Amino acid sequence: MRSFPLTDEKDLLLRLQKGDQYAFEQLYRMYSKRIFINTVKLVKDEDEAQEILQDVFIRIWNKRENIDTEKPFSSYLFSIAQNLIRDFFRKAALDRKMQAAVIAQSTELYEHIESSIYFKESSALLQNAIDALPLQRKKIYTLCKVEGKSYKEVAEILGISASTVDNQLVKATQSVRSYFHASKTYIALLTILMTATI
């Protein structure tokens, strides 16, 4: 797939925000093939992949005024595709046999993703998990787990007891683990979607 200069893409996005259909079509041509081919690899059904692809760009058009032109457009596409593929596999998982096949498939794909990509996406997933915590637990988790401070140091910084730090850290850690557990079936699938080379 031919790469496009960032300035050209930003211009297209600015025009898209104003309802320029030509700009929309150009962006579709730039990204649709990549999304479709990799979605087919994941869902194993061209009709489903085509439907997901169309839904991605329908949402792009409907939310065009909210697009942040200062951020990578591919990341925005990724987040939309992520939700749609997650919905697809959630529905498929209602059938236990299909659920087992999905888990096996995601595990196989996971093993073939380059480690640098995996770590990048895992870091983003961890940050999302931390951001989802209540404010105090987020502060405690960040100070203890990310910055490596002791319970005593954290207690002094936040003006709370060390036992409160301990209690809140346990709950925060459980929440982060639950977040990862809920996402583990999809992380390999979603990572490869926007990074695979055509």
Task: Report what the structure shows.
It comes from Pedobacter alluvionis. InterPro entries: RNA_pol_sigma-70-like, RNA_pol_sigma-70_dom, RNA_pol_sigma70_bacteroid, RNA_pol_sigma70_ECF_CS, RNA_pol_sigma70_r2, RNA_pol_sigma70_r4_t2, RNA_pol_sigma_r2, RNA_pol_sigma_r3/r4-like. The chain is mainly α. The protein folds into two domains: 6-92, Rna Polymerase Sigma Factor, Chain: A (Orthogonal Bundle), CATH 1.10.1740.10; 116-183, Winged helix-like DNA-binding domain superfamily/Winged helix DNA-binding domain (Arc Repressor Mutant, subunit A). Helix content is 78%, strand content 0%. It contains ten helices and no strands. It has helices at 6-17, 21-43, 46-62, 73-92, 96-111, 115-131, 135-146, 151-158, 162-183, 187-193. Helix 5 (96-111) packs across helix 10. The longest helix is centred in the first third of the chain and has 23 residues, at 21-43. The relative contact order is 0.12. Mean pLDDT is 77; it is low at 1-7, 110-119 and 185-198.
The CATH H-level homologous superfamily of the largest domain: RNA polymerase sigma factor, region 2, helix turn helix motif
> Please, how many helices?
10
- H/E topology pattern: HHHHHHHHHH
The gross shape turns out to be flat
CATH names the topology of the largest domain as Rna Polymerase Sigma Factor, Chain: A
Based on the structure given, which CATH architecture of the largest domain is correct?
Answer: Orthogonal Bundle
Low-pLDDT segments: 1-7, 110-119, 185-198
Tally the structural domains: 2
Instruction: Name the beta content range.
Output: under 5%
The major sheet is characterized as: none
GO molecular function: DNA binding; sigma factor activity
Keywords: DNA-binding, Sigma factor, Transcription, Transcription regulation
Domain RNA polymerase sigma factor 70 region 4 type: 125-172
InterPro entries: RNA_pol_sigma-70-like, RNA_pol_sigma-70_dom, RNA_pol_sigma70_bacteroid, RNA_pol_sigma70_ECF_CS, RNA_pol_sigma70_r2, RNA_pol_sigma70_r4_t2, RNA_pol_sigma_r2, RNA_pol_sigma_r3/r4-like
